[in-house]
């Protein structure tokens, strides 16, 4: 696998567009919008507070987020901006979202939501790219999945593979807020949208190595250039949609439910 430099990454952005990847992001952001609309109705407005704990809701939420984050890792090297700039911009937007929720919806405050995760993942990928690119893509994808699966219950004090083994994480690791972004929040921590680095870096790295795998197999053309009506266009505006959808959703629910 070739070591990526800034120049080739910029050229890839200007010469080709993977419309199917945009469509997948568009499909994911559509799922996020619908999920949060129902969340506002059932949870925030109390119509069914336990709605989000149902199995199909968890699969819907977590599956959509896995694909969305994996697609972010997939297109990491195609960005026209530097990793530093993109990472800082995403983190700044995440802090703005946190401030807005503190001021207007304090009961649903967001601490280290998906934008802060994306920003930190982008920065970390920029820092470790020269070493990450040396790992064979198949092993990289497997490692990403392993990180995701073994760390999925880390915020609940467990590390391991469900049904195979589980190791209790020392309680002392959860005694400070400073480790919350890593995935080790204190017992009294609450966030309505929490995406710690572990396990979600596993999804990000899976997407990053999926790109490398398809590149090595010369499979980045063809089907990836297919346009999907509506969803390909929505994927181009996924960040803007994410920033605007929750205020619009909450406003509509407030208007109709009082």
Could you walk me through the main structural features you see in this protein, from its secondary elements to its overall organization?
The chain has one domain. Residues 1-15 have low confidence and may be disordered. Helix 2 (19-44) packs parallel to helix 9 (238-257), helix 3 (55-74) crosses helix 7 (197-216) and helix 4 runs antiparallel to helix 5 (114-132). It contains nine helices and two strands, in the order H-H-H-H-H-H-E-E-H-H-H. The protein has a two-stranded antiparallel ribbon. By secondary structure, it is mainly alpha-helical.
**What count of helical segments does DSSP give?**
9
User: How far from one another are the termini?
Assistant: 56 Å
Q: Which regions are unreliable across 5 or more consecutive residues at pLDDT < 50?
A: 1-15
Main β-sheet, spatial strand arrangement: 1-2
> What spatial form do the alpha-carbon principal axes imply?
globular
Helicity level: 55-70%
Rg for CA atoms: 19 Å
**Number of extended strands:** 2
The ordered string of helix (H) and strand (E) elements is: HHHHHHEEHHH
Can you give the mean pLDDT?
89
């Amino acid at each position: 696998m070739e070591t990526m430099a800034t120049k080739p990454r910029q050229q890839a952005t200007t010469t080709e567009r993977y419309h199917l990847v945009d469509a997948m992001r568009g499909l994911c952001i559509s799922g996020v919008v619908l999920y949060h609309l129902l969340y506002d109705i059932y949870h925030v407005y109390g119509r069914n507070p336990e709605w989000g704990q149902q199995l199909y809701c968890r699969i819907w939420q977590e599956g959509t987020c896995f694909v969305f984050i994996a697609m972010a890792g997939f297109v990491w090297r195609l960005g026209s901006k530097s990793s530093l700039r993109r990472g800082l911009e995403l983190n700044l937007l995440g802090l703005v979202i946190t401030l807005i929720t503190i001021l207007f919806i304090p009961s649903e405050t967001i601490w280290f939501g998906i934008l802060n995760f994306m920003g930190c993942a982008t920065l970390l990928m920029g820092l470790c790219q020269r070493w990450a690119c040396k790992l064979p893509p198949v092993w990289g994808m497997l490692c990403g999945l392993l990180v995701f699966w073994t760390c999925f219950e880390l915020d609940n004090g467990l590390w391991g593979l469900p049904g195979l083994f589980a190791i209790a994480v020392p309680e002392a690791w959860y005694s400070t807020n400073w480790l919350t972004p890593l995935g080790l929040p204190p017992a009294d921590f609450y966030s309505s949208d929490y995406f710690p680095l572990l396990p979600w870096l596993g999804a990000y790295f899976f997407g990053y190595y999926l790109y490398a795998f398809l590149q090595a197999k010369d499979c980045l053309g063809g089907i990836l250039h297919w346009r999907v009506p509506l969803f390909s266009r929505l994927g181009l505006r996924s960040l803007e949609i994410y920033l605007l959808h929750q205020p619009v959703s909450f406003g509509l629910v407030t208007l109709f439910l009082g």
